[in-house]
Amino acid sequence: MTKEYNQKKSSNDNGDEMDNICEECEKIDESVSQNLILSGYKLCKSCRISKTLFPI
User: Which residue has the higher pLDDT, 4 or 15?
Assistant: First the structure.
């Protein structure tokens, strides 16, 4: 059981890197990491504003 847990933990650690890529428009922007810390969403500044104004 310990080996399985360690394998699952190591495979999950690879995807948790902070990569500054917006989930909506897929552009690389510094504001993505800032918005991730503030709101919990990986959105750039322009996508965040558009989601705030037009939430649908």
Answer: 4
**Full-model pTM:** 0.61
Centre a 10 Å sphere on the Cβ of residue 32 and count the other Cβ atoms it contains: 23
User: With contact defined as beta carbons under 8 Å apart, do 29 and 22 qualify?
Assistant: yes
Nearest CA among 54, 8, 5, 25 for reference residue 44: 25
pLDDT (average), residues 29-49: 94
Closest alpha carbon to 51 in 23, 29, 16: 23
Contacts of 48 (CB under 8 A, 6+ apart): 31, 35, 39, 41
Asked if residue 23 lies in contact with residue 43, where contact means CB atoms within 8 angstroms, the answer is: yes
Query: Hey, how many other C-beta atoms are within 10 angstroms of the C-beta on 33?
Result: 14
